[in-house]
């Protein structure tokens, strides 16, 4: 048992890098600390504790993490600095020695931040200690309201795929998940708190069920039956794991939105093989076509990595043409980053940073063309928008069922409400559609 009196009057700040899963886990840590009496510091207030949830997906992410630590150390002198997450798991000594943090906690220890803070407040005198998890096996549950309106429910962790460029399986361990019954209960709790939309997060979500003998489609069906939750989104699912049965179910489900995010990673079979991905371009094209056939108005987001070792100019051109031929809504473009310990380092044909930048720019332009065309097709149609609490100084925004961003003048009555609208034209920078007419507040 922790003596919570040591936390009286303590204030904390939180900084998250990386994926939705990390954001979900940070929110869970914040809730636990609040329950123990540690208040979240207000803007401009100095904090006693800084929690950094790190990411190791690229060199850039690691650099940003170190920069964030230095910034927080300067801004909150004397605060306890706790770093957790993938980078903390993979490089605890480096973080501790280069940044002077107090505690570095590995992946499995994220759930124990409070206990470690307790020890720190009582026992250590400016000494850091690094505790990466030796064998990452636990499932640390997390279902948290993001900083705005949606909930993020962690349904799975870890990955067994070992793509040649990726460090995530080393950081987060093998694929594992909780029971469906536990997740249904967490969704019910979110509904009881007023939650309307839940984003399912994880590392390799489609792999759900490996550790419990269940399946992802059974999870989808069970969650669809939870009263009070009007919307679910699947944050990302591997192309080989999104079965036709799942797509068909989403097409007739009560609450799963016509919105899928499917990582392609490379648009040529040669590079897909180098990456050890489990499909080829023909399979991906057929999968995207099935989604489009069964969910004609779905938003389809696609991840792509440019400049992987072995991606020649000719292969990039081939990939570009392939991606251009897909009827998808947006690309998420990443530049390949060398990761220590990965198999990709043994592949010949490194691509220069300038060339990676050029390829990335071309795909980002293609993505914008596709997104604007997709948004444009929806102008004048009816849609239901879940409006979110805006950030200070920003217009009120929300997303339609098929993930079109919609903006409207701030009206506090509409926050966290499902509102049927007629979609208007683009806003000034074409990042969102406006509302032509408000039709119904649900
Ligand atoms: S599927 Fe591949 S890219 Fe995704 S987390 Fe697993 S190893 Fe990494």
Explain this structure to me?
It is a single chain. With 442 residues, the protein is an alpha/beta fold. The chain has 3 domains: 4-131, Rossmann fold; 143-377, pyruvate-formate lyase- activating enzyme (Alpha-Beta Horseshoe), CATH 3.80.30; 382-441, OB fold (Dihydrolipoamide Acetyltransferase, E2P) (Beta Barrel). Helices cover 34% and strands 21% of the residues. It has helices at residues 20-35, 59-75, 86-90, 92-99, 113-123, 168-172, 180-192, 216-224, 244-252, 269-275, 281-294, 313-325, 353-377, and strands at residues 11-16, 39-40, 49-54, 80-85, 103-105, 129-131, 143-145, 151-154, 197-201, 231-234, 259-265, 299-306, 330-335, 382-387, 396-399, 405-408, 418-426, 433-441. Strands 2-1-3-4-5-6 form a 6-stranded parallel beta sheet, sandwiched between helices. A 5-stranded mixed barrel has the order 14-15-16-18-17. A 4-stranded mixed beta sheet has the order 7-8-9-10, sandwiched between helices. Strand 17 (418-426) and strand 18 (433-441) form a beta hairpin. Helix 7 (180-192) packs parallel to helix 8 (216-224). The chain binds iron/sulfur cluster. Residues 159, 161-163, 166, 168-169, 203-204, 238 line the site of iron/sulfur cluster.
């Amino acid at each position: 048992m922790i003596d919570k009196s040591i936390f009286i009057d303590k204030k904390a700040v939180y900084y998250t890098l990386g994926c939705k899963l990390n954001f979900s886990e940070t929110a869970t840590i914040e809730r636990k600390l609040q329950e123990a009496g540690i208040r979240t510091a207000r803007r401009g207030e100095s904090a006693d504790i800084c929690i950094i949830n790190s990411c190791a997906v690229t060199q850039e992410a690691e650099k940003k993490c170190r920069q964030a630590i230095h910034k927080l150390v300067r801004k909150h002198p004397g605060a306890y600095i706790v770093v957790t997450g993938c980078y903390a798991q993979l490089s605890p000594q480096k973080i501790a020695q280069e940044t002077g943090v107090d505690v570095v906690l590995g992946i499995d220890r994220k759930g124990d931040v409070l206990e470690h803070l307790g020890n720190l407040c009582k026992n250590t005198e400016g000494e850091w200690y690094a505790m990466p998890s030796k064998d990452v096996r636990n499932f640390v549950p997390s279902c948290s309201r993001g900083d705005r309106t949606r909930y993020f429910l962690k349904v799975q962790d870890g990955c067994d795929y070992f793509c040649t460029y990726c460090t995530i399986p080393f950081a987060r361990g093998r694929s594992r998940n909780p029971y469906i019954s536990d997740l249904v209960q967490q969704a019910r709790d979110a509904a009881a708190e007023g939650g309307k939309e839940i984003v399912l997060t994880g590392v390799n979500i489609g792999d759900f069920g490996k550790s419990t003998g269940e399946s992802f489609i059974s999870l989808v069906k069970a969650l669809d039956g939870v009263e009070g939750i009007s919307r679910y989104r699947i944050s990302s699912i591997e192309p080989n794991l999104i079965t036709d049965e799942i797509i068909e179910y989403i097409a007739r489900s009560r609450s799963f939105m016509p919105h899928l995010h499917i990582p392609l990673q490379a648009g040529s079979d040669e590079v897909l093989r180098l990456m050890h991905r489990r499909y080829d371009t023909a399979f991906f094209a057929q999968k995207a076509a099935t989604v489009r056939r069964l969910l004609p108005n779905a938003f389809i987001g696609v991840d792509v990595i440019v400049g992987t070792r072995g991606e020649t100019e000719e292969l990039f051109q081939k990939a570009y043409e392939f991606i251009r031929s897909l009827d998808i809504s947006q690309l998420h473009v990443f530049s390949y980053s060398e990761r220590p310990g990965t198999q990709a380092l043994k592949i010949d044909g490194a691509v220069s940073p300038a060339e990676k930048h050029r390829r990335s720019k071309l795909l980002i332009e293609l993505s914008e063309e596709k997104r604007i065309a997709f948004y444009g097709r929806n102008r004048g149609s009816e849609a239901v928008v879940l409006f979110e609490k805006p950030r200070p100084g920003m217009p009120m925004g929300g997303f339609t069922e098929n993930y079109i961003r919609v903006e409207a003048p701030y009206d506090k009555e509409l926050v966290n409400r499902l509102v049927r609208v007629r979609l208007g034209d683009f806003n000034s920078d074409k990042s969102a559609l406006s509302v032509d007419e408000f039709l119904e507040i649900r």
